[in-house]
Specification:
Blueprint (H helix, E strand, L loop, with lengths): L13 H19 L1 H19 L7 H23 L2 H23 L4 H5 L5 H10 L2 H11 L1 H19 L3 H5 L2 E5 L4 E5 L7 H22 L3 H7 L1 H9 L3
Antiparallel strand pairs: 1-2
Helix pairs in contact: 1-3, 2-3, 2-10, 2-12, 3-4, 3-10, 4-7, 4-8, 4-10, 7-8, 8-10, 10-12
Length: 240
């Protein structure tokens, strides 16, 4: 199906020109890195299969975080495929956190009220900050599944290093230096699709997507087994 013609004026400003660059990069990623793209599509299909299976689930509260994690994942695919590298990691951090929150609140249902009342008072906000620390959430995951906890912590730290915080590595992966006899010029690339860091962002997107599915398997283990997602998860981990 042919793409619709853009509206009048599209491409006349820097924002819509930038949008076009992102789309062109996404097309190139799809065409030139098809095996990676197929892996990302397969992970998305697993999310959709799980979501569609959760009608009348008793653990309905965790499903809210599953939906947000899936949305984060889709955004990370779009960002990584278009070459927006630091931004990819910012969203991947959120994807991991939604998985960890979903697991924590599933295993600690009495904490739902604490989480829901965050904005009631300053005291409630502080209570949420004290309880929902990332170290606490990762510790719970590791106590249930040590391997998944190790993977999640590694990916979370990579997300922090590569863009979820304004750290040195987040800057350096897109920094360019042009030097001549008269001056040194520094440039920061907003998009980058020709470096090893680009392929790392694609791989990390797939890894986080699978890791978060693994976290939700600890919430919905029986459902995973019934619909065949436990076996699918094993296959999705291959090559990652």
């Amino acid at each position: 199906m042919a793409l619709p013609m853009p509206p009048k004026g599209w491409g006349d400003d820097e924002i819509t020109k930038f949008f076009d660059i992102l789309s062109e990069n996404s097309y190139a990623t799809y065409a030139n890195l098809r095996s990676w793209f197929q892996k990302l599509v397969a992970i998305d299909s697993a999310y959709r299969k799980l979501i569609d299976s959760l009608h009348n689930s008793q653990d309905w509260f965790a499903a809210f975080f599953l939906l947000r994690a899936h949305s984060n994942y889709l955004t990370a695919v779009r960002l990584s495929a278009s070459g927006q590298l630091p931004e990819t990691y910012t969203v991947l951090r959120s994807c991991l956190e939604n998985g960890l929150y979903g697991l924590y609140l599933s295993k600690n249902p009495s904490s739902r009220e604490t989480w829901l009342r965050r904005h009631d008072t300053d005291a409630h906000k502080q209570k949420v900050r004290d309880e929902f620390k990332i170290a606490t959430l990762l510790k719970l995951l590791s106590s249930i599944d040590a391997k998944e906890g190790e993977v999640a912590e590694t990916l979370y730290e990579r997300a922090i290093d590569c863009g979820a915080h304004p750290n040195e590595l987040a800057l350096m992966q897109t920094l360019q230096m042009v030097k001549d006899s008269e001056k040194i010029e520094f440039k920061v690339a907003y998009v980058e699709v020709r470096s090893s860091q680009f392929q790392l962002a694609l791989k990390t997107t797939a890894q986080v997507g699978v890791c978060v599915l693994g976290i939700f398997r600890l919430v919905y283990k029986e459902r995973f087994d019934i619909i065949g997602l436990t076996d699918s998860l094993i296959r999705l981990r291959e090559g990652l």
